[in-house]
Amino acid sequence: MKTVITTLGLVLTVLFGLTACSSAAPASLAADTVVIDVRTPGEYAAGHLEGAINIDVQSPDFDGQIGALPKSGAYVVYCRSGNRSAAAAARMAGLGYSQVTDAGAMSAATGSTGLAIVTTP
């Protein structure tokens, strides 16, 4: 009886473990999605998501730089902790951008986008 319970426990652990791993697979981005790092240029240079562009939400020219992007595009914004990306997403929505996803902190964004963290050469 003890062997049956131990075996059952092992089987359940393996099954639930595999399910948890497969559900953690990163999401794919559409090919035309623009990823925007809204941190400072220094933070961006120290490490950013591969392919991301840098538009500092605290820059006085943020609205102008964002305004150069097509309003019909799809965008993902992220920062260090999620505060600045939330502010950037709200400002973009206020400017008429309807397809903006706030990925929050870079650590969360790398998981949700599947993009690696790289540094500027």
UniProtKB/TrEMBL annotation:
Domain of life of the source: Bacteria
Occurrences of domain Rhodanese (ranges): 29-118
Classification via CDD domains: RHOD
Keyword Signal among record annotations: yes
Pfam families for this protein: Rhodanese
SUPFAM superfamilies: Rhodanese/Cell cycle control phosphatase
The entry's keywords: Signal
GTP-binding in keyword set: no
PROSITE patterns registered for this protein in UniProt: PROKAR_LIPOPROTEIN, RHODANESE_3
Signal peptide boundaries: 1-27
Family annotation (PANTHER family): RHODANESE-LIKE DOMAIN-CONTAINING PROTEIN 15, CHLOROPLASTIC (PTHR45431)
UniProt name for this protein: Rhodanese-like domain-containing protein
Organism listed in the record: Cryobacterium fucosi
Organism phylogeny: Bacteria, Bacillati, Actinomycetota, Actinomycetes, Micrococcales
